[in-house]
Amino acid sequence: MTASLPAAHLAQLNVATLRHPLDDPRMAPFVELLDPVNAAADAAPGFVWRLVEEGAADATELRPAGEDVIVNLTVWETQEALWDFAYRSGHLEVMRRRREWFQRHVEAHLVMWWVPAGHLPTVDEALERLAHLRSHGPSPRAFTFASAYTDEEAAMTTTGPPTHN
After folding, report:
1. pLDDT the model gives residue 156
2. What is the dihedral of CA 41, 9, 137, 156, to 10 degrees?
3. Which pLDDT tens digit goes with each residue over 151-161?
4. Closest CA to 115 of 48, 39, 52
5. Which own/partner pairs from 26-30 qualify as long-range (CB within 8 Å, at least 24 positions apart)?
6. Which of these, 87, 139, 83, 146, lies nearest to 113 by C-alpha position?
7. Global model pTM greater than 0.90
8. Over 80: is that where the pLDDT of 13 sits?
9. Mean per-residue pLDDT over the chain, rounded
10. Helix axes 79-87, 91-101, angle to 10 degrees
11. pLDDT tens digits for 96-155?
């Protein structure tokens, strides 16, 4: 008997508005943490994929949400896997120090949504989900840890665009 592959994976986007340019000495501690935190994500149980700029080790130079906004776009097998990485790994140190490097957001800065297993979301898709969350609040189409929906709940809604692999 073969184990079946999951029908859905969890995509997440978070955006952060920089207090200073990445080459500013005040950002050096954050920049120094990028490689080890990204390596930990890549090796984390349940990790599927992360956005990386072509020819780079990360996506910090991509600025689709504004010149002073960095994006983090990843896909995980489950919400629990993402939670464990975000709050039970070395990533937590970055979270604890975020106010040193990033401005406080008044709008939602993190969004999650379910994608078919094998689908890699685009930045445009991710930004649209964030905009949807900001405009309409949490729903199976766009949610947060505090307002999570299951992949089954998302599959029962018809508000999303058709999915393509």
Report:
1. 85
2. -170
3. 999 888 744 44
4. 48
5. 26/100, 26/101, 27/101, 29/97, 29/100, 29/101, 30/94, 30/97, 30/100, 30/101
6. 139
7. no
8. yes
9. 90
10. 70
11. 899 999 999 889 999 999 999 999 999 999 999 999 999 999 999 999 999 999 999 988
What are the structure tokens assigned to 61, written together? 């130079």
CA distance 138 to 123: 19
**Rg of the Cα atoms in the chain:** 16
Q: Please report the pLDDT score of residue 164 as a whole number.
A: 43
What would the two tokens of residue 16 be? Answer: 């952060």
Which distant-in-sequence residues (6+ apart) come within 8 Å of 131 by Cβ?
none
Three-state secondary structure string covering the chain? CCCCCCCEEEEEEEEEEECCCCCCHHHHHHHHHHHHHHHHHHHCCCEEEECCCCCCCCCCCCCCCCCCEEEEEEEECCHHHHHHHHHCCCHHHHHHHHHHHECCCCCCCEEEEEEECCCCCCHHHHHHHHHHHHHHCCECCEECHHHCCCHHHHHHCCCCCCCCC
